């Protein structure tokens, strides 16, 4: 009898350094490189593959994932994963990995190049000089020495930009909710709030992921608050800046220059900003150097092949790294821990620098490190594309977060329980969860109110006055907007007091519907959540 083992099949669907294909083959995978396909062509083909290696041009939508019946892992050769529907991939059991550091230096250097290009108007001067105009009198630049650079986002790339800018004798100020005073001092930058940055910066560079909190962070209102003559660089993500407002403020000379590497719609073959004075751009070239592309191609191929061939997990955004023995026992706890971390991260506001993770009853006997990693990864996921179970504790420490792990062997009401508590300006806020039947993670308490809920997919969290008729009103509102409710979970402090409603819904809830729900009688707070 012959024992036939089939090799895992991998599709590389974006332009990638050839080292990636070589590594896949050397590590025992069959690889196809097919770039530039339409979404329909990708959907028709994806069912054949176990692994998918991408950059930013391939968008992995629910439709792609539905068609990907054999897919086990997606690897992003780069940092930003906003082109992958991670909750949907998680629901399908597909691991999503990225390469968090391979292109950071290159992207930081591109941001600095943009600062220089704006200061001396190099692209415009080049075009007109080569056209034979010799336009010497039209190009009066500015020095960057002594100028203030405002960083929005001071993570990996932001901190490299800061170090380069300091070397160029700029003063650097930074707005980042996760930047601690100690880390700011270590980086040689001044921590400021957003308004302070807008008021003071001569140059602004953006280095955040695109999230619900950062989308449109340079809105028209914020752009109008900037110092007259400011120059703005975005090498992070389109969608962080209101492009129409940017155009108006460039035309009115309030903004002296803007350099974009990324656009709200990509590929940006047309854009209202094209042709605007003092506007320069590049076609998402931030990561495009030989060095960075070799780095990310090698890393993504090694990570994907390791997972497909050996089951090893590195830099996963939706799965813990685990040893073979611990894995089966810890797996449901990790899912619970990540969801509890994500829940407090999404609901508790302010400068959250203290978090405690309590394991009670049977959970006290488990290896606490992966559980802590999972809580912190869930907690920080909304701030960073690069956080995972492995790097979350390190990132939390670097950002000055105080993390406490508490073991309590004595069983309470549940025989096993995880409790996550953050310290906020309103006092301590805790959420807790257990496992039903040793497998199924369940939320059992939210901010002091008992509830039983499965934290999954898209959800709506509502705090309201406990009064008759409310459930009907919210059900009707969602129904009228075509939103199907999958699950309804209720909890309350005491009859007629504060009540909590956690609805699981079949699709993301748009912001305007959240606003409508907030305006319903008796509602105190509404928040759309994603797990
Ligand atoms: N142009 C390109 O080709 C290119 C290349 C690489 C990365 N990027 C983009 O750059 C982004 C940053 O990469 P990184 O490696 O520095 O990521 P990172 O996760 O190390 O840093 C992101 C920082 O943004 C901060 N942040 C989050 N929300 C914020 C908010 N509301 N206000 C201010 N700061 C906030 C986080 O606290 C974190 O410090 C990536 O997410 C990616 O989208 C673009
Ligand atoms: O997030 C990233 O890594 C960058 O946006 C790079 O994108 P690219 O790989 O498509 O150049």
From TrEMBL:
Pfam families: 2-Hacid_dh (PF00389), 2-Hacid_dh_C (PF02826), ACT (PF01842), PGDH_inter (PF19304). InterPro entries: ACT-like_dom_sf, ACT_dom, ASB_dom_sf, D-2-hydroxyacid_DH, D-isomer_2_OHA_DH_cat_dom, D-isomer_DH_CS, D-isomer_DH_NAD-bd, NAD(P)-bd_dom_sf. Signal peptide: none annotated. Its EC number is 1.1.1.95. Keywords: Amino-acid biosynthesis, NAD, Oxidoreductase, Serine biosynthesis. CDD domains: ACT_3PGDH-xct, PGDH_4. Pathway: Amino-acid biosynthesis; L-serine biosynthesis; L-serine from 3-phospho-D-glycerate: step 1/3. Belongs to the D-isomer specific 2-hydroxyacid dehydrogenase family. This is D-3-phosphoglycerate dehydrogenase. It comes from Pontixanthobacter rizhaonensis.
């Amino acid at each position: 009898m012959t024992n036939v083992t089939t090799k895992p099949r991998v599709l590389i669907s974006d332009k990638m350094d050839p080292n990636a294909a070589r590594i896949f083959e050397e590590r025992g995978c069959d690889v196809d490189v097919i770039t530039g396909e339409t979404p329909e062509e990708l959907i028709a083909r994806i069912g054949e593959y176990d692994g998918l290696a991408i950059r930013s041009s391939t968008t992995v939508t629910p439709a792609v994932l539905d068609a990907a019946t054999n897919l086990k892992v997606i690897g992003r050769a780069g940092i930003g994963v906003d082109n992958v529907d991670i909750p949907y991939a998680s629901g399908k059991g597909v691991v999503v990995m990225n390469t968090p550091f391979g292109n950071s230096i290159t992207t930081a250097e591109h941001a600095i190049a943009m600062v220089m290009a704006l200061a001396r108007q190099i692209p415009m001067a080049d075009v007109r000089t080569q056209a034979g105009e010799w336009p010497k009198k039209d190009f009066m630049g500015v020095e960057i020495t002594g100028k203030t650079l405002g960083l929005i986002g001071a993570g990996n790339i932001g901190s490299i930009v800061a170090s380069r800018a300091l070397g160029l004798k700029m003063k650097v100020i930074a707005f980042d909710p996760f930047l601690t005073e100690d880390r700011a001092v270590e980086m040689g930058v001044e921590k400021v709030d957003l308004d302070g940055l807008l008021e003071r910066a001569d140059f602004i560079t953006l280095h955040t992921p695109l999230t619900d909190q950062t989308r449109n962070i340079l809105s028209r209102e914020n752009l109008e608050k900037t110092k007259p003559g400011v120059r703005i660089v975005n090498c992070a993500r389109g969608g962080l800046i209101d492009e129409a407002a940017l155009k108006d403020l460039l035309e009115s000379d309030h903004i002296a220059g803007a350099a974009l590497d990324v656009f709200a719609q990509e590929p940006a073959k047309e854009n209202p900003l094209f042709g605007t004075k003092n506007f320069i751009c590049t076609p998402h070239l931030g990561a495009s150097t030989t060095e960075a592309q070799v780095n990310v191609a090698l890393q993504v191929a090694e990570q994907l092949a390791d997972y497909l061939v050996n089951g090893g997990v590195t830099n996963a955004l939706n799965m813990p790294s685990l040893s073979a023995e611990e894995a089966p026992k810890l797996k449901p706890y990790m899912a619970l821990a990540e969801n509890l971390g994500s829940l407090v991260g999404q609901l508790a506001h302010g400068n959250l620098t203290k978090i405690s993770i309590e394991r009670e009853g049977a959970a006290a006997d488990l290896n606490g490190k992966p559980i802590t990693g999972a809580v912190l990864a869930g907690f920080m996921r909304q701030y960073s594309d690069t956080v995972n179970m492995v790097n979350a504790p390190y990132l939390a420490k670097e950002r000055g977060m105080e993390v406490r792990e508490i073991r309590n062997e004595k069983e309470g009401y549940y025989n096993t329980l995880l409790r996550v508590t953050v310290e906020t300006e309103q006092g301590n806020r805790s959420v807790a969860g257990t496992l039903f039947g040793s497998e199924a993670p369940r939320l059992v308490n939210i901010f002091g109110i008992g509830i039983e809920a499965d934290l999954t997919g898209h959800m709506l969290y509502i705090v309201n006055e406990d009064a008759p008729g409310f459930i009907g009103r919210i059900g009707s509102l969602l129904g009228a907007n075509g939103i199907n409710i999958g699950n309804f979970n209720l909890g309350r402090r005491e009859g007629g007091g504060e009540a909590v409603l956690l609805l699981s819904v079949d699709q993301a809830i748009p912001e305007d519907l959240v606003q409508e729900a907030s305006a319903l009688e008796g509602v105190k707070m509404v928040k759309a959540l994603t797990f």
